[in-house]
Amino acid sequence: MDNSREYYILYKPHPNTGYNDKETGKINQKIMNLLDSYESAKVINSGDINALYEHIDIAIFDNSAIAIDYLSYNKPMLMTDFFYKVKDRQNRPMIVHGAVMLSENNIDDLLNLIQKEIENDTLKENRERLKRYVLGDLDYQNGESTSLFISTIVELIEKRDSL
User: Fold this and answer.
1) Cα–Cα distance for residue pair 36/42, rounded to 1 Å
2) DSSP string for residues in 32-81
3) What is the CA radius of gyration of the chain?
4) Nearest Cα to 7, choosing from 32, 41, 43?
5) Cβ neighbours around 102 below 10 Å, total
6) CB proximity list for 24: less than 8 A, separation 6 or greater
7) Beta partners for 42?
């Protein structure tokens, strides 16, 4: 793979990153400082992360639930594998079946993994099945889920008022 391709990085850490683990907070700060020094990177500390999804080619998530929202964009994703750190965890969440997992075993090959997923999207079918299971078959980009939500609320209000 050709690693000479330049990427534009958007980094949006969770607002509570490092709250429970000071070492993670220090690492997060180092990442932000490093990215602030590059023209081809931006640290984003506020706003709705969902608004960024249409502008990116691939996302890297931790074990956060926001990866589920990303499913509606049908784009490749990678996920950091920290599930072993959760005490007494018996299994991993379903979302991992739609993402290439990053661990100590493959992190040195990150640029190749990113390029491979942008070009081939190896888990697209898994993500599509996951999306249907978790989010249904709604057209999220054209507001179908919002329209359905609003019409359901209106219907319930009308039903309540008629009672």
Assistant:
1) 7
2) HHHHHT-TTEEE--SS-GGGGGGG-S-EEE-S-THHHHHGGG---EEEE-
3) 19
4) 41
5) 19
6) 17, 18
7) 10
Is the pTM for the entire model greater than 0.90? Answer: no
Distance CA 20, CA 148 (A): 38
CA dihedral 78, 81, 82, 88 (to 10 degrees): 130
Name the token pair of 35: 């990215």
Residues 24, 29: Cα–Cα separation, whole Å? 9
DSSP string, 136-149: -S--TTTTHHHHHH
For the stretch 121-139, pLDDT in tens is: 999 999 999 999 988 887 7
Residues 6+ apart with CB under 8 A from 138: 72, 144, 145, 148
pLDDT single digits (tens) 36-56: 998 999 999 888 888 889 889
Q: Find, among 122, 66, 81, the residue nearest to 98 by Cα.
A: 122
Contact 52, 75 (CB under 8 A): no
